[in-house]
Specification:
Bound molecules: adenosine-5'-diphosphate, cytidine-5'-diphosphate
Enzyme class: transferase
Domain Cytidylate kinase: 10-227
Structural class: alpha/beta
CATH architecture: 3-Layer(aba) Sandwich
Protein name: Cytidylate kinase
Subcellular location: Cytoplasm
EC number: 2.7.4.25
Amino acid sequence: MSATPAAVIVAIDGPSGTGKSSTSRAVAAQLGLRYLDTGAQYRAITWWMLTNGIDVNDATEVAAASGKPSIVSGTDPRDPAIAADGADASGPIRTQEVTAAVSAVSAVPEVRARITGLQRAIAAGAGGGIVVEGRDIGTTVLPDADLKVFLTASAEARAARRSGELKAADGSAAGDLAATQQALAQRDKADSSRKASPLKKADDAVEVDTTELSLDQVIECVVTLIEKAAAEKAGRMEKAAQ
Ligand SMILES: Nc1ncnc2c1ncn2[C@@H]1O[C@H](COP(=O)(O)OP(=O)(O)O)[C@@H](O)[C@H]1O
Ligand SMILES: Nc1ccn([C@@H]2O[C@H](COP(=O)(O)OP(=O)(O)O)[C@@H](O)[C@H]2O)c(=O)n1
């Protein structure tokens, strides 16, 4: 295990299936950093809306309800918890129903303002450094992050990964490759074309194409980037203290 020489704030963004969650959890665990899955927060508020009779396709209704549930995220990379109004949401947020509704809910500006506030507070409170992964972390949530990484992969590779994962989870038709690829493309389009804080690479993000890389290779690459960013930050802090 290596240790980071300075507390760093790391933003990892990219579309679905590029390896954000797996990579972020692994590098945070390896480097002793906290970890925040912002997609889980959007999924949790979506799950709460679905279970509380909110019409998720009615932006006015979603906006009016956006402040109601408490959304609490754990930041342990080995056990990232998520709760909505005190109920464990880690299982229900992965259902197809939530996956199909989450882009519409997260496009509502009031929802984004609420969740972005939570994210900034968590990052500010993570004294030892944190890896925050999502869609708009480098562009909007933490524009001053010490390191921004934007993961990409071909549509085929992303669908194959996601479909394998769904098949392993329940063996259902959700594991069908063509259907998964279509659903991913739809969600990417919605996430990239919304007005409020769309999925977009920050100008100063390092882009890593993971199509031909194993997960271990991606982890190694991001660990190296974080160690470099942490060393540079430590150097700047030392200089400023002189
Ligand atoms: N480089 C990679 N090569 C092969 N499989 C990968 C790679 N990165 C991630 N995976 C697998 O792909 C699936 C989706 O990864 P995940 O980290 O959840 O992506 P994201 O958070 O970007 O949606 C997981 O099953 C994960 O193990
Ligand atoms: N920072 C973020 C993170 C997620 N999201 C939304 O939440 C959804 C679910 O995110 P996720 O990270 O769990 O998605 P997966 O790619 O892991 O399936 C995304 O499709 C976006 O609609 C967002 O709008 N902004």
